Structures are given as C-alpha cells and as structure tokens.
Amino acid sequence: MTDDVMTGIARRDPRKEWIARNRLHPEHDRVLAELGKGSAAAIEWMGPHGVIRKNPHTAGFIGPSGLKRIDRSGLQQGGAPSVAVRARQESRRRIDIASPAFLVAVVPEMGGGRLSHHDRDLLGLARQLADADPDRPGAVLAVLFGGYKGEGEGEPKERALGEAGIDRLLHLTSDEYEGFAPEARLAALAAAERELAPRHWLLPDSPLGGADLGRRLAMRLEERPATGVWQLEADATCTLGWRCTARGAAGSLDIQRPLPRVALVLAECAEPVSDTLHAAEELTLNVELPANLTRIEDLGQVAVDPAAISLGEAEFILSAGNGVTDWEGFHHAAQCLGATEGASRVAVDNGFMPRDRQVGATGTWVTARVYVAVGISGAIQHLQGIQSCEKVVAINSDPGCDMIKRADLAVIGDANEVLAALVDLVESRRPQAKRGESRDAA
Amino acid sequence: MLETLLPILIFAALALAVLGAVRRIRLWRQGRPARVAILGGLAAMPRRYLIDLHHVVARDKVMSNTHVATAGGFVSAAALMILVHGLGFDTPLLGGLLLAASTVMFAGSLFVARRRLDPPARLSRGPWMRLPKSLLAFSLGVFLITLPTIGVLPPGFSQGAGHWLLALVLAALVTWGLGEMFFGMTWGGPMKHAFAGALHLAFHRRPERFSSKNGHAGRSTGLKALNLENPEAPLGVETPVDFTWNQRLGFDACVQCGRCEAVCPAFAAGQPLNPKKLIQDMVIGMVGGSDAAYAGSPYPGKPLGEHHGDPQGPIVARQGKALVDAETLWSCTTCRACVEECPMMIEHVDAIVDMRRFLTLEHGNTPNKGAEVLDNLIATDNPGGFDPGSRLHWAADLDLPLMSDVKQVDVLLWLGDGAFDMRNQRTLRALVKVLRAAGVDFAVLGNEERDSGDVARRLGDEATFQSLARRNIATLSQYRFLRIVTCDPHSFHVLGNEYGELGGNYTVSHHSTYIAELHDAGRLAFAPWKGGKVTYHDPCYLGRYNGEYEAPRNVLKALGIDVAEMGRSGFRSRCCGGGGGAPITDIPGKQRIPDMRMNDVRETGAELVAVGCPQCTAMLEGVVDTPAEVRDIAELVADALVLESDSGRSKHRNQPAFEEVT
Amino acid sequence: MQPDSRPFEVAVLVSVGRHPLTGRARRADHDARGLELALGLGRHLDRLQVRAVHAGRHDSGNDTALRGYLGMGLAELTLVEQPDGADVIPALATVLTRSPPQLVVTGSRAECGEGSGLVPYALAERLGWPLVNGVVEVESIDNGVATLLQALPRGQRRRLAVRLPAILSVDGAAPAARQSAFGPAQRGELAPLQEAGVIDEAFAEWTFSPARRRPKRLKIIKATSARERFKAAAAKAEGGGGQVLSNVTSEQGAEAVYKLLEEEGVLR
C-alpha cells in the first residue's frame, strides 16, 4: 500500500527541468524523452505541479506548403494508452497459480462475444470458491465458446480475461459451437469434465445463456444442480464445503442447501474481480472431440420487426400520445431507434395505433428499461402502467404535464420536431454503431 | 250474400288464428321451462298493460293516443263484429257501437298511416308499411258492412246485380282486414305483437318489475343466477331453444318501433349492435332462416343476409358466422336504456347476458382483455390483478377504522375496486372527509373486501361472480352494520339487488343518497358554490338500475348548484360507455361512447360535470380536449364543507372532546 | 412415420401453479402456454392428439388449478398419482416410455417446490431425446422434423429444426394461453394412473423460507489515494428529480435524449 502511495508522488529534479526548458542544451532531447516516459520525442509530460506541459517544437509535421503543422485533435497521441488506464492496470496485483489444488470451471454466457456483467459476477463468485483456502488455492477455469470480441479498448484477450479473474482458459472456437448448439457444447463440456475434472461447475442462470447449457450439463454429469443460486457461505459439514441459497418456486422461495457440483447462479451473486490480475493461461484438450450427431439444427436468426414485439416483452418503448401528429415520422423513428411502439389510450382511441399497443393501467403494464413518451401528457392510468420502467424520457410541449414530473429526462418542445432531430442524430451516428453491430452478429 | 259470407269469413279467420296461436305457443314452449304463475299472470295482465306499459308508451303522447284509438277501436270492433256479423246479433245498438268502434279505429289508423308517410329511421319497414293500410281496410270494411245493420243502407242493398261488385269489394276488404288482424296475429304478421305482447305481459320473466295495486313502484334489474351446482344445468344460452319459453315469447312481442335503437349508445357509436335487430334475430332463430327479410336498421357495419339461424343451432358460431356475431353481444354496455324505453317490456340485457354466459363459460372466449380480467378476479379478487393486500394503501394516512376491529358500526363503507385506481382514490378520500365531517360512525372491510362481482357477471362469468359474492356475503355476515354506503353504483347494484338471491340481504345506499340524508339531517354544512355552470351525468347503475335520480340532484342543489340538465338525463341518460365490461371487451365502433356523452355535456355549456360513479369518471375523464372538468359528487361536497369548528355548530360523536377538558 | 395412419401425439406436462401475489393455486403460466402451443399444432396436422399429463397428488386445493387445463378444451387429463414429496421424474419417464408421443411440451419451470426447471432436461436425458428450450412457435412438422422458433432476449427469434421425437420447453415469451372455460373444466375428467412414487430425499433435507429481498448492490468505490477517497466521500448523491430541458432547440433536446439512450445501451 505504501509503495503505491510513494510512486504516486511526483518527485522533482530541478536540473532536468532546467534542461527540459533549454532547447539548446545538448542533453535536451534525451531529458525530454525521459520525462515523456519513453517515446523518442516527447510531446507532453507531467510538469512539477501536476500540470501537463507540452513541447510544441517536437510536435507536428511539415505540411505540403513547407509550413509546420500541429494537429491538436489529439490523433497523434492515439498510440499510448491514457494515464488513467495505465494506472488502473498497474494497480492490479498479479496472481499466478502455478499448480492449482483444484479447478473451478465457469462457462460464461459471452453475450455478443464479450464477458457480460453477469459473467463477471460469476467469475467473482468462482474466485471466492477458488481462493477460500490460501494454502491450497484453486484455479478458475473458463470455458469459452465461439469468437472472443474484445473489450473495445483493444486490450489483449489474456489481459481482459485475466482481469476478470480467469486463471485457465479453454477457448473452443470451432464452427459447430456457433448459434444454438447445445449438443456440441455439451459434448465439449463433458470432455472437459473427463480430462480436467473440475471440482465446481458454475454457469450463469440466464435465459439462453447458461440456464439451458447448465441444466443439460448437470443431467449429463448426473448431478442435481442448484439453480437460481444467489448466495454462498462456507459450511464444513457439506460435501464440497459450501452451502448455498437458491431461489425456488418461480422466485418466491429461498432454498438453503449444500452446494452441489453444478450451480447455476444469478446475477449479482458476488462482486466482480477488481484488484487482481490473473494469467488466463490457455489450455487445450488432449482428446479429440467426437463428431456430434446433431438433432437440432440452427437455421439462423429471424428478422423480427421491433414494432411487433409484445409490449410486455419490450425493453425499449417509444410511445406516442395526443401530441404526435406526424405518424409517419413516429413509425420511422421507432424503426430507426429499434424501439417497440407503444401508445397512450387517446392515440389508440383515435385509431392511430392498434389496441394491443396501449400502455397503461387499462392497456398493458410495461416493464421496459427505457420508456420514451412522445407527446403524452400522462394520465394517471398511463403513469400507473409505466411504474416499473427504469428510465422515462418525456418529449412534450406542455412543461406542466404530469409526464414531465415523472420523467428522468424531459425535453420541452414540439414532439414531432424533437423526434425528427433524434432520428437525424441516430442516422448520422449510425455508420459506427452499425459496424460494431455486424461484428457482434457474426 | 254478405250475410252468409261474413260468418264464414269471420269464423274461418278465427279458426286459423286459433290454429296459429297453438302453433306459436308450441314454438315458444320449445324453450326451457320457466316457473311462471299462469293464472296470476293472466289476471295481472290488464293492469300491467294499462298502467305499466302505458306509462312507457305515454312518453310519446301522439303515438300513445294513436295506439289507444287504433288498438281500443280494434279490440272492441273485433268483439262486436263477431257478435253482430258472426253470430247474427244484429241489433241497432250493437251495430251502432260497432260503427263507433270502427270509426275510432279508422281515425287511429289514419295517424298510423301519417307516421308511415315518412317514417323515422328507427322504424322497421317491410310488412310494417302495410299495416296502416290493413288497419284502414279492416276498419273501413267493418264500417261499411255494418251500415245496413242500423238501417242506414237497406238490408238488400247488395243483392241487385249491380251490387255484386260492391259486395265483392267489401268482402275483399274485410278478408284483407281479417287476414292481417286475425290470421296475421298468430301466424307472424305485424299484428303478432298484440297476441305475443299480451301473453308476454302475463308471463313476464320479471313479474316484480310491474307496479302493484298498493302503490309499490315495480323495479327488477338484477340478473338472475345460474345453477352451477347441477352439472346438467346449462350454462347460458347457446341455441334459440336454450332461452326460457317466456323469453322466446317476449322476443315475439317486439313491435320493431326502434325506441331501443334510438337510445342504444353502442348503436350510436357505430358498434355492431342494434337491440331491435338483436331481438328480431332471436325471432328468426326460433323458426330458422336468414335475416335478409328484416326491414329495419342493421347492426352497424354488418350487411343483412349474411347471417343464418337454426332453431337448434348455435346463435354464435365458434368460427365463421351464425345468427349473431359475438362482437354484437360484447358491444352492449348493459346500460338498460333499451329496456327502459321498450314499450313491450322486453328484457334485452337479460338475453345478451345469457348469451354472453355461454360464450364465457363454455367457449372460453371473452374478447380482448376479458380473459385477463377474469383471471385476475379469480386469482386476486380484483380486476386489475393488484395485490389484494394493498387495497387500503391509498388510505395509509387516513387511519380508517376496520370492521375486523370494530365489529359493529352504523355505516359500512364499501370501497369498490376504485380503491386501486389513483383517480378514484381522490373520490374516496373526499368521501371519507365528508363522513368524518358529519361524524358518521363508519368502518371499512379493508383487505377483506373483494370485487363485488359486477364485471365478472356482466362478462358472463357467473362462476366467478358467485364465488366472489359468496365470499363477500360470508365476510359481511361476521359483522353488524345498519347499512352499506358506496360510491360505486355497480357495487351498489350488485350488493343491493343481486346478492339477495345468494343469501345476502343488505340495505345499500349510494353515497349521494347518504350525503343527501346527512344534509337533510343537518349534519353537513356547505359553503355556497362559486364555480361556473354545472351539469350532472346520471350513472346507469344508479339511475335506470336503481331509480335514484333525485338524491344526487338534491346534493348539488344543497351545494348551491343549479344543474344545467343535458338533453338526455334522468331515465334517458346516455351511458358513459363504461358498463357491462364494455371497456374491457372493447369492440371498435365509429366513435367512442364517452366522446358522445362529453358532447352532450358541451351542449349545456357546463364547465363541470358532476358524476357519481368511478367508471363514469374514468370514461368521461378519458375524453381529450373537453372544456368540462369531471368531478365526483363526493369531491364537490368535500370541497364545499364548512367544518363545525369553523361554523361553531354543535359537535357530533366523533368530535374529540377537548373543549370540555380545557 | 405416416401422419395419416395414426394421429400425431403430443404430451403436455402440466403442473399446479401458484399466483405470485396471492399464492393461490392456478394453471401454471408456462405450462398453460405449453398446452396452448400444443393445441395450436392442429394448424399443421390433420390428426392431432393432445394428452395433458400431471404427476403429483390431487386434492381439493389443486382441483380447480388442474381443471383449469381441462377448461382449455381437453376432455381428459392424465393424473399420474404420486405421494407428497415424490420425485416426479421417474414416474413421468415411465409413463412417457410406455406410450411414447412424438412431442413432449413442458413449461420451463414450476411455480411451486424447487422450481428448478430440471424436469424437461431430466426427461430428455432419460429418454435420449433432443430438447429445445424457449420455444415460442412450431412453424411446421414435416417428415419427422419440426421447425421451431426460439425466443431470444428483447423479442428476437431464432429458427431451429429438430428431429422428432423431441421435448420442447416453453416460457413466458410463448403466446398466452387461451381462456379456461368453466363448463369444460367442470365436465373434463381427471383420469388417474397409479405409478410408484420415488421419494425425493435430498429435497426433504433442504430448508425453505419465503424469498428474502436481495440486497441492492452498492457502488463500492475502490479509492487508492486520499484524493480519490475524498472525492468519493464528498460526491453529491445522484438522483432526485428528473432533468427538465426547456427553451432548447430540437437538436439540443434530441442530443440529450440520444445521450441517455446510449448510456442505457438500448440503441442498436
């Protein structure tokens, strides 16, 4: 701890500072490079008072007209990671478990080819199991199916996975695991079981993530899994030394039971790993995986019109009320944002929207995460129906209406114009977003 | 020649009429049995006709007088004609009376004919256009053949060779008249209404709806319970023969006057319902066939000739078309405007609910949100599916006394399902304030209260209604109270009029009635009204169902409000569209019923419309761009309250006794 | 397989549900959706025979709930009678093996008891049949292959082809069950079938309590320096009233909305 604090304090060297200021000093370039932490010709460095200093003479390039040009957009510095990221990485304690006493196998859901929040929580829990006995540490083994898409900042896979708390990695990238391939994945997990014999199997109890695969695995291993696990505590009387609390009866019961070998775990079961860095050392299976007889064939995703998704299921709803006059524009906006369409009672009564799109106490009670109310003043029944929405955005011309009071963000203005501006904005930023999207879907 | 021909004609027509009557009666009797006091009914029939029926007919003075003249003239002319021409009692006195009767009938028929010159849309055409001519033919024919009887024309006037033609014309005229009036009466012409209508009055399925000699004004609006214990007992009406025989008889009584059509809110809104057509469809169903010959306004949006019925076949098909489409039945708001207007005392709402019962209990096909609402009622005892333990959350700060604590009170305040609706909670808070100001000893059931079962019953789910009702009755039986007060007319109606059959008999008052009583007793004082023009909307379940038109108006008057009445108010009030589960089944029309009602409000120029029903409040408040504010009477009263401490009047029981202490 | 010669048999496994607010016994939501899915197969098949199977104890407390399935239009419900505390999987497996249907439809999890959602998986493993979870629609059945739609989050769908016989499990994304009608529910028959019960011993050893509210995750601030600790401690609490933007141009308003949508990650 004290070391960290010591290195965090900037120490001054007046001589070097003097040389850095004096361009004519023979050692000027070398000192600048030193202060700039490594790059040959430092452009900027931390000054003695914590202020960033710049050397304009080393920056820039000679333009086509023979004049020196300095690009101040910051592009030139793209190569070096920011100070903050560097600091974060270096603050992590590196842990290598050379010969683990046992393995805790985790099969993350890897939605979109990345570790999800749920996965990170799960890995945090796996660390609790692995690190319980400091003398005989276990290792966390992650079994990953399909391509790994990175974390967005271009960090190497081992680093990102290591930060999540993974010691060993079994990365299976064959095509047969793509899409819905429970049979192939199950065969691979069974092979891993035979070869690596982990003490625990942990999977996220998430729909179409681990909930399905985990149950299949448990049945294949002839284990009775604990499902909906959300709490663990050490208990020496249990076979595996742990006792768990699991949700039962559609979430209405808590079941206390010894932790079985296979556990399906809810989100927020543990804190994600945040201060250690693990090796994420890649393993390979020695046995050849048998070719599977597949009885389930994935024919690919079906194009679903977001507007047709049932309101109860929708996560993002764009809802129209009496203030909407440009219906064409509204439908276009919903399509452009990828939102499910909703409506106030008035809009339905007036025949602009079908009845199954009505939100409210007399229509559908919605649970969307984001609810955008366009031109809806917010009758009591409507507000009742959106009680459980997390974020409500109101776009309305009447600053006094009840919807504005309910909203987390309210924009006062003509609903149709704001919506049109929003569509323009989304479309102008679309190219970037689209590229990311297509990579995910691949 | 006429002397020999007339008795033959008359008795032949009479014989045919009797034959037709037997056939028709047998047709009605194909329906299910019903317990009816035959002799008592027949004995009561003249009074029911002359008082109760006439009370309805007399709302239209011209038509009433026309009918008195025509029908009265016909009945006496027919009787006298049998005597004079049939049996040969051709005394000048009888002949003179017969002439007078036929003259009166002729005069009446002229008025009938005048109305048929340019008939309003609600009247059916077809054979009904022929009726005035037949009436004229009969009365004229009878008049002319009777002239010789009193010696105005010589007895032998028709015996000359030149008079053969005249005799033939007269015979044809009389035959036409007899055919329409006697034969047609029982074989299915427009005159069928006289025969069926008379018997319908005698064997009506709700004899208690007629007034009695001791001045008791008749009213019977509660739906009748189904027998759910017996697995053989049918659940509602599937086919025309599933109606009870006296219901079938009632359908035949219809005169197609279209008064029901003119007042039906669903018809006006362009929803596929027309009460008159519905009753005619039931008539078609009794014998089978298509509705192509029906000559009145169709169900909006449903062309004639596409629907066919069968006496034993389903009225509503599971798939495709039969006699009636399900959405016709689900369009009804059960507002009883049609029943209130019907001069033949036909019970449209009963028939509709009977058919709905089958759709819900046997088909499991309650449209739109119906199934969800019924499931909620079964699982949570309220239509919204709210946690039944949260029924009193709105009153967390009011510290309402609970029946389970106090056991015995003067007034049990029935909250209704409005307790879950944030809008109605304002009304309830206002009502509690008023009761407290008047020092009323009251308590609520709290979480022990359940939905009254109104919506379930109107949606045809008798099983859920009875389950809710029986449990409510069991709860209520644990406590002692003088009366139940509620601000929900639907609960009011069900508790007061429909629980009795299941063993729960209570004195129930609507809050407006109770507030009026409190005010009359001097327990409430109001500040004078300072607002603008106010109109009042009669809730169907308070007005037409329970006859309470005065109390709300008295309360408003006590508040200093001079009510600007709407064109349709009182027993003619137009429904808000919220009854009978109509907002749940939500059958689309051309416009919305509450919008039409708010237009009525707008026509009065009122700035505020006072209501006394949570459904009406919700429906009328749901209308956008209206100039009028919607307030419950309880809210108006609560706002105008002058509390005793201010006015220095005498204290009531609930007033804390701090003054005496200090 | 000759679809014309014998009817296409579907077995739907149904359980006694529990209403989440009142705890009253009812049709289990997922199971009822499963039955709806099975009854809807009539669209694709000339001869369809749907058999509903419930394994467990039948008593007055769950009679209405079981009859709820009959009210969806079944004449009969097979009642595999099991003692209290029995593991129903062996009994169900026996019944299904004895007269194997071409398709088994189940809900994704029960609303009472352990509710682990293991029944379809255990049966699939025992019978050796393929299993597809989260089915929302059967698009066609042809030559022993069923084409299905599987629900993905956010209302997305995936098309799968599965070789029959198979087990399909259905969750809340499947179309809602039809209304249960009182008349057929009362008339329908609960046909009992005696089957030896295997007592679930592990289950008996667990302890049960009503679900506790899970603690809300707190934002833990890992401060590595005094400065960060101070900042964390002095930070203003978030939340309170919503932000209202008035007198802004449409573009500025749209920008703010866009920012929120992006933060919430709902833009795709």
Structural notes for this entry:
The complex is a heterotrimer of chains A (442), B (662) and C (268). Chain A folds into 3 domains: 1-60, no CATH class; 91-283, HUPs (Rossmann fold); 306-438, TPP-binding domain (Rossmann fold, 3-Layer(aba) Sandwich). Chain A is 30% helix and 22% strand. Chain A is built from 13 helices and 21 strands. Chain B contains 28 helices and 9 strands. The model of chain B is unreliable at 646-662 (pLDDT under 50). Chain C has one domain (8-205): 3-Layer(aba) Sandwich (Rossmann fold). Chain C has helices at residues 29-39, 60-70, 88-98, 119-127, 182-187, 201-205, 226-234, 250-264, and strands at 8-13, 16-18, 25-27, 48-56, 76-81, 86-87, 103-107, 131-132, 135-142, 145-151, 157-163, 166-170, 189-194, 198-199, 207-210, 243-245. In chain C, the strands form 4 sheets. A 7-stranded parallel beta sheet of chain C has the order 8-12-7-1-4-5-13, with helices on both faces. The model of chain C has no long low-confidence stretch (mean pLDDT 87). The interface between A and C is large, with 91 and 78 residues. Strand 16 of chain A pairs antiparallel with strand 11 (157-163) of chain C, so a sheet runs across the interface. Chain A: GO terms for molecular function: electron transfer activity; flavin adenine dinucleotide binding. Chain A: Residues 104-303 form the Electron transfer flavoprotein alpha/beta-subunit N-terminal domain. Chain A: Keywords: Electron transport, Transport. Chain A: Belongs to the ETF alpha-subunit/FixB family.
